[in-house]
């Protein structure tokens, strides 16, 4: 039972809720707790310091994919709607040019050797720190492109305080070195303490980062893309062949995918490379309640991407029934449709007496969905999970399905993706939900593809990634690395379901739907004042806060277009 892990949970709750607050890039006063010269004296000190990094591990939340073509929040995303302005000052809370985490890692790496313990132990915690440094600098590169790389501790006389920006690729080569050290020096899961980083978690992060970097280099014409893509493939293969992981399945293809994301215990789940665990009355979250009042929804663009059950795109399949109603739209479609999106018959909530609130019509005109395509991935119908800040559903930090997708895409980018690779990856994901296996020889190019110039195999791998990882926060990063920001301009990326008059008439409360704005074809317009968003080339990077450019002119020039 979870209560057997109470000590671990208390440690985790301290990490995630209070953390170890770090100083900014220019504020060089270290935390008093760690500035004592007697600190870093033993393994306990190393562990305590590294605990502070764990709360920064990324997990799925209510806003995941809101900044993409997958979902449409009721309030416009400022960046994607052209309302974002260059910040004047950095903001540590929002991540605007904040370097507190990077500086904190380097502070540790300059001192951990003091500990009176063996090299294997010291290297393990150095590997944890370098794992996080790789994560932090990758996040900076994604946001700003060229950024200063510094790997030493800073003081008031450090020349690094006025460093120029290091070229993108050079920073990422250093990130790769940190990842390689982490993979080599972290223990395997059986030897690692529960809840701490291990070899295969590091390999999963390496696979994610190297695929992003390699494909970013390729599609932005930066060169040297193949070595990074090779690193991604090798890291994914290490997890596949050595980690002992598998896809979660109970043999119920119409529910297994949905149930994967509403589990109270992911420890021991073979798909969980690394979960974030929650325990009642100790460490809880609010995701289920947020998803029930999310004011967002999947886009028409996303919904069109579901294959039909014959394995063909809707544009090619004779079994496609159209979208005049959500009942028609889900008919003969990939079963993940009904496990990602609330459709008629979905149990929205069960009260304390066991009474079920069952979806009969899409709940448009309410706070649960902006588009009619209500997200239910990660949302339990349990009233207990609905209570504010009382959810104990575990969340994924790294899951095996992502690694399979990385491997398939990387091998395709290397021109090494044959049927055996697909059988090991894409077809296994499809088998879980009862979809037919992908057969490379039988693939047909979707005439409505988002990537008309892309080889059909890569196109279909990207489709699978979009569906399988939906609402987990990957889509915007994918658009960046594929140089595909223009997909944000697709009008369907901000449209919802079709609301025909005969469907509208079925709503008992006509006030709920009377103010819904539709386009000329009857689709819900979430933003009545615009027909589509505009993507500018400058949006592949964010601007540096202007005050930072004043403080350090060597950071100039500002990112192009800003």
TrEMBL record:
A Pfam family per the record: SusD-like_3
Keyword Cell inner membrane assigned: no
Protein's cellular compartments: Cell outer membrane
Keywords in alphabetical order: Cell outer membrane, Membrane, Signal
Keyword Signal included in the entry's annotation: yes
GO cellular component: cell outer membrane
Residue intervals of the RagB/SusD domain: 289-562
Broad class of the protein's primary localization: membrane
Domain SusD-like N-terminal: 25-211
Stated family: Belongs to the SusD family.
The protein, known as: RagB/SusD family nutrient uptake outer membrane protein
Source organism per UniProt: Chitinophaga oryzae
